[in-house]
Design a protein that fits this description.
mainly alpha, 17 helices, single chain, Serine Threonine Protein Phosphatase 5, Tetratricopeptide repeat, globular
Length: about 325
């Protein structure tokens, strides 16, 4: 930027770096400057990501639609356009709009056939719709193209949910194998592995170590969520509460964040907050996870029942 202050890409890269370390206001300024210099697929898709992080789903969707239109008009590379279409699908999925999510994923696959992100998006969508065989097929296709640990973990969860325990174990072993292959980097899959360990109650000490290491490199809201979830799983509840409050500070609308918050507050016996966040998780996206959606509904029902029972008991005492 010192050489060329009119280079929009430079502001985009700066914004990306600032976003990674949690400096959101500065990232927004960089992205805004990029948009002023160039209204493009790349500028609007970046701005959309920041809006999504701040809980502005409608703004993120509008910017991604602009990004796709501008990318097509400028005849940008098809993979870049497909990425924005996939991201648009993710935004719709995050707020529970499964029909629009599917439309976007299918458009992404039409733009760039066999795009692994869109295949995984379709797999997540079919899981939410309880079409497990189709979900398995989509995840297998995505993993064959690029074996990401979170895809293998999600596929394992479907196998476990449908009673195919041996196949589930194979996928869970693949998650760790992928992580070991990249261990020389020490950073690349820390986040995915730490979520995997916490989600499955495996190697909880190692999961917490990875989460803490991740926070050393990246201080975005998901690094704090990751730390909160691993602290919770290790029984360090007060620290987990502090971390999840940091993760929630921007108002991000993410059912996973809300679920983690609800579970932490429930363990702290903060029933009102636990009820609030578990209800938020389910109202944001009732099918956000093949296992944890049911967990959220079950604990929320238990909390609401205990609140109702306490109210009846108070009325009885008053009478």
């Amino acid at each position: 930027m010192a050489i060329n202050s009119e280079d929009g890409d430079a502001y985009g890269i700066l914004g990306d770096a600032l976003l990674e370390v949690g400096r959101y206001a500065e990232a927004e300024a960089a992205y805004d400057h990029m948009v002023q210099l160039e209204r493009s697929l790349y500028s609007y898709s970046r701005l959309a990501g920041l809006k999504s992080t701040r809980g502005d789903s409608a703004g993120a969707i509008a910017d991604l639609e602009r990004a796709v239109a501008l990318g097509k008009a400028a005849k940008q590379p098809s993979e870049g356009i497909a990425w924005a279409e996939w991201q648009l699908g993710m935004e719709h999925f995050a707020i529970g709009d499964l029909l629009m999510a599917e439309s976007c994923y299918r458009q992404s696959l039409q733009t760039y056939p066999n795009y692994y992100r869109a295949l995984a998006g379709m797999a997540q969508l079919r899981t939410a719709q309880k079409s497990y065989d189709e979900a398995i097929d989509f995840y297998q296709k995505a993993i064959a193209i690029l074996p990401m640990p979170d895809y293998a973990a999600a596929l394992g969860d479907i196998y476990a949910k449908t009673g195919r325990d041996e196949q589930a174990r194979q996928q869970y072993a693949l998650v760790e194998y992928i992580g070991r292959l990249n261990d020389i980097n020490k950073v690349l899959y820390n986040r995915e592995l730490a979520y995997f360990y916490a989600d499955h109650d495996l190697k909880l000490n190692l999961g917490l170590e990875l989460a803490q290491r991740e926070l050393d490199y990246r201080r975005d809201i998901y690094a704090y969520d990751l730390l909160a979830w691993n602290l919770y799983k290790n029984g360090r509840l007060d620290e987990a509460r502090a971390a999840i409050e940091e993760a929630l500070k921007l108002g991000t609308k993410d059912a996973k964040l809300f679920f983690h918050a609800g579970m932490i507050y429930s363990s702290l016996d903060a029933k009102a907050k636990a009820t609030e966040f578990l209800a938020l998780a389910l109202s944001t996206n009732r099918n956000f996870h093949p296992v944890f959606s049911a967990t959220a509904a079950e604990i929320l029902e238990r909390l609401e029942h205990s609140t109702d029972r306490a109210g009846v008991e108070r009325q009885g005492q008053g009478g």
